[in-house]
Structure formats: C-alpha cells, structure tokens
Amino acid sequence: MSTTKSQALVLGASGLVGLHTTKMLLQQNTYDVIYAVSRRGIPLEHERLVQIQADFNSIDSFIEKLHINHIFSCLGSTKKKTPDKSDYLKVDHDYPVKVAKIGQSNGATKFSFVSALGANVKSNNFYMQMKGQVEEDIKALNFEELYIMRPALITGNRDEVRPAEGFASWFFKIINPLLLGNLKKYRSIDGKTIAQALVKTAGIDHPGVHTYNTEQIKKLA
C-alpha cells in the first residue's frame, strides 16, 4: 500500500480568499497536508496544516523540496499597499509564477488561481495586462489541469480597511440585481464563494485549461 501523502499549497493564505480556501480544504479530506503560505501567518491550527511564513525572496528555500500535488494561488495586492508598479508586479505576477514553476518541477499537476475579469495581456490597463500575463505564463507551464477564476469585484470581511472597496461593495449591492443576461459576469462576488469554487476543483479530474467568470464561479461553488 502506498504511503505517499497528497499535498496542497495555498499561496496568499492570509488574504480573504486564501484564508477561506485554507479553512475549506482542512474541512475536507482530499489532501493529507495543506501548506499555507503567507507573510504574517494565519489564525488556524490543525493537524494537517503546515504554515509557511515567507515572501517572494525567501519562498524558494521553503518549498523547493516539497512534493505538492495541487497549488491554489490566491495572491492579490492593492495600489495602496504596493503603489510602486514593480513591487505590484512582483507580488501579483512574479510570485505566483515562481511558485508554479517550483511546484511543477516537484510534481504538481493541478493549479487553481484567482485572476480578474477583463484580464488580457494586450490590455492598455496595467492591472488587466498584468493579470493577463500571469494567465499566459501559467498556461505556458502546461499543467495537466489549470483552473482560472475571473471574478469581478470581490467582497467580504477583510482584516484591512479598504474605503474604496467598501463604497464599491455598497454600490454593487444596489446594481447587482440590474445586471442581467451577459452582464451578470460583472456582478460582485463574495470571497467565500470564490474559495468554494477553488476547493471544488480539488475534486475535479478534468485535464486542460478551464476559465470561469463570476456567474460560472457561483455555479461551480
């Protein structure tokens, strides 16, 4: 009988979506070990949870020998936290791509991550262009299974205060019911719902690249 443990890694585990994802993975038995990567740690304890406190510059030494089966990337910064574009790029692009490459070289076959509605490498918008580049660079690694979540505005209770997002959340509560048909993909979505969809991919055996907009994320969840 094989004693090899199935293992998953959550990148950005202290964020809104990442923390929900980690909690849900621990509630299931799909993976024997859950590695939660964050800079400051998370308020969780579990016999199957291994916390890794690291950043872009130190992550290599922590995961280069781990045999991960499935990577969940929930990273996402803000202009307020990282106003410098090069730093923004490092967090939202370089970090997940680096972890994807290391994980794949150690056996990872599945990659699920949070992108953004409108992600396009040809976009004139820096944020959308960057998200599009992340998608293209992850696709180029040819994971057996790749799941891309493209939500619109992500809502939910966060540790940090984001006034602009607070106003946007209030605004979308009003207009969400008015966004019908093809416009449904522009509705806001709770971070917990995105996490539910990410965790659902753990139980899917569907080779190829799969992209989900807001409404498709809700259906998957």
From TrEMBL:
Protein name, as recorded: Nucleoside-diphosphate sugar epimerase
Subcellular location: Membrane
Main location: membrane
GO CC, any one term: membrane
Keyword Membrane: yes
Keywords: Membrane
Pfam families: Epimerase
InterPro entries from the UniProt entry: Epimerase_deHydtase (IPR001509), NAD(P)-bd_dom_sf (IPR036291)
Entry keyword Membrane: yes
SUPFAM superfamilies attached to this UniProt entry: NAD(P)-binding Rossmann-fold domains
Domain NAD-dependent epimerase/dehydratase: 8-116
